[in-house]
Amino acid sequence: MARDLTPLFEPRGVVVTGVSSHPGKFGFVALHNVLSCGFSGPVFAVGREEGEVLGHPVLASIEALPENQADLLVLCTPAGANEGIVRTAAARGVRAVFCAAGGYSEAGPEGIEAEARLVALADELGLVLAGPNGQGVVSTPAGLCAQIVAPYPPRGRIAVASQSGNFVSAFLNYAGQTGIGISRAVSAGNAAATSVADYLEWFAEDDETDVALCYLEGLPDGRAFYERVREVTRRMPVVVVKGGTTSGGQRAAASHTGSLASDDRIFDGMARQAGLVRAATIESAFEAAATFATQPLPSGNRVMVLTTAGGWGVVTADAVTAHPDLTLAALPDDLRTAIDGMLPPRWSRNNPIDLAGGETRDTIPELLDLTAAHPEVDAIVQLGLGIQGNTASLTRSGPFHPDHGLERIVDYHERQERRYAAAAAAAADAHGKPVLVASELAVARPDNPMVAAVRDSGRLCYASADRAVTALGHLVRYAARRRART
Amino acid sequence: MPTLSEAASRRIVEDAGVAVSPWTTAADIGSAEEAAASLGLPVVAKLCGDAIAHKTERGLVRLGLSSADEVGAAAADLLAAARPEDGEVELLISSMVRGNRELIAGLIRDEQFGPCVMLGLGGILAEAVADVAFRLAPLERADAFDLIDDLGAQSLLDEFRGEPAVDREALADTLMALSRIAENTHIHSVDLNPLIVVDGRPVAVDALVETA
Predict the structure, then answer these.
(1) What is the DSSP secondary-structure string of A116-129?
(2) Which among A170, A266, A286, A327 is least buried, having the fewest CB atoms inside 10 angstroms?
(3) pLDDT of the residue at B125
(4) Are A233 and A200 in contact (CB under 8 A)?
(5) Which of A255, A267, A268 lies closest to B108 in CB terms?
(6) According to the model, what pLDDT value does residue A255 have?
(7) In chain A, what are the domains?
(8) Interface residue of B112, B117, B179 to substitute, partner A, most A CBs within 10 Å
(9) Which residue among B113, B130, B210 sits closest to A260, beta carbon to beta carbon?
(10) Residue B131 DSSP class
(11) Is B36 within 8 Å of chain A by CB?
């Protein structure tokens, strides 16, 4: 049973302390963010003196907080003031504390003592305590941006818990860039009372969340983390990216096994055994989570590559073949025959399915559906879209548009690109298989109509085929494990 | 951490279900020769004692002894090489098993994650190649197979230079045995190094147990 973190992520009302009129101070920024992102519950600001900040009334003391209106207390006050504030707030009905303030265990012996007292107080009062020394908490279903930094991400199905606040921001920035949104996000800070495992357990029970994404640095109690997250991964994919090395401690000198036991090798084995999806980089971790959030889980590892031109298909076939968890699907005879009826004879007649030419592109939607429907295909990577949109872009901005028939052809190209992107999403939905669209235009020309339409379909347009294959590999591995272990 | 002799270590891993090369101990030259005769030549002779953890480095391993005379001479050399700090010693005579592939398996206790079972490529290049992987004990059998699949050099587990593919069930048995040993908290670590693949089946030809 997960610890109930509802008051942290779905508070009725929010109190921010440490609010002053200085727009650079954390209290001001936190209040600004809570007031600016759509939170509909009551918001209370507490400062040193009564007044107004951002047109919002400021209470001179936590004593002035009305009863039973706020669940969440966001502490931007110094460590020395916080115990008294917490006790009073709890008496007025507060049930969760996000302590953004620093000066705790990261700050020497006195801070360690202050943190221990804060934890004991939260225990005594039955409060959820997040942080201290964390950036804050975000919850898009609640319109809540209780953080001392930006950004506020679009709403979606990925929940973030991170041992580094900066990587919360990084993941939220990627969410903004790609449109693949976030449900909850929290920076664990010093994780004095609430750890990443606590967040993950709650995310697994959260109806707003389909996949968790976390950044880990140290796991002081790695065994307990393992025991807990292996239960979480039975219910929900958990993508992990690990930074740094952990304190391996003294290893037995006599043991050869011990000398080969680097921290990372043990972490990696633990991650695989627990069913965690371990990504190599922050970027690929986000893309893995975004893929889990937006594509169906595949029921096998056979990948078909569709391309409008040769080179892309070749390198993608290489990437699929080299991936330990993926297989380049054999092109089934009946599918070959069906495609023979649609394309001129110069098409590849193999996987990759290479259309080999411009006029054949009109068949892409039909090909995508036909391929996705085939029982011997588990997933599709679609390449080489966006060419017409790119042409349209240059034509539209050139000196001849809209004359010489250019308006009509530009419109046609753009319409076709939207059609292809919609077809990729429709094929995934209709057949319950991942269909990943990859193109460098995703980053080079995010305004390309294909890229924009993939985004509008709620999917990620992968910046390269390699990145699509990496993400797909994570899906295939996780799905295989789920099938094997449940 | 104190170590156990190879003989004591072999008993522990054998009891848990690890396949080890046929062996016996001998106190003197005569019984070493008898042991070799009953095991069948060729044999390996080693000096064995609780305080002797690095036999190879000290030249206390004699491989491929193929006659009674060779066994006798090796036994005499080894007994003469004992140092006072070695404490009580004996000879360990084992069958000389052969295979082109060597693995290494073991058990360690990690500060953060507790008992972990390891599998890797063995042999003289083991540390340079460092193709090893870990799982946390206790292992489920599926974890043992995943651990085997984690090795980078999978082709070495297939048919190899006229030898059959590695029997994954038998290798999983070895890993599960290490996982069972982890239940004994008095045992700090185990090394099975090397684990020679004999006709596809892993056989430990050395064992080292450290106690807590």
Answers:
(1) HHHHHHHHHHT-EE
(2) A327
(3) 77
(4) no
(5) A255
(6) 57
(7) 6-291 (3.40.50.261), 297-485 (3.40.50.261)
(8) B112
(9) B130
(10) -
(11) no
pTM (two decimals): 0.94
> pLDDT tens digits for A272-307?
999 999 999 999 999 999 999 999 999 999 999 999
Res A261: pLDDT: 67
Fold classified for B22-95: Dna Ligase; domain 1 (3.30.1490)
User: Within an 8 Å CB–CB cutoff, is residue B4 touching chain A?
Assistant: no
First-last CA distance in chain A:
19
- Say what the pLDDT of residue A252 is: 41
Contact assignment for B106 to A255 by CB distance below 8 Å: yes
Q: Work out the pLDDT band at A358, boundaries 50, 70, 90.
A: low
Provide the percentage of residues in chain B whose pLDDT is more than 90: 83
Q: Could you give the CA distance from residue A33 to residue A12 in angstroms, rounded to a whole number? A: 16
ipTM: 0.93
Question: How many residues comprise chain A?
Answer: 486
Of the candidates B61, B86, B85, B87, the residue with the CA atom closest to the CA atom of residue B75:
B61
Flag if A257 and B191 touch (Cβ within 8 Å).
Answer: yes
CATH superfamily, domain B101-211, is: ATP-grasp fold, B domain (3.30.470.20)
Looking at beta carbons, which residues of chain A come within 8 Å of B111?
A: 247-250
Q: Which of B132, B136, B150 sits opposite A270 (nearest CB)?
A: B136
Cβ distance B147 to A251 less than 8 Å, yes or no, reads: no
Q: E strand or H helix at A92, and its extent?
A: none
**Average pLDDT score over residue span A90-110:** 95
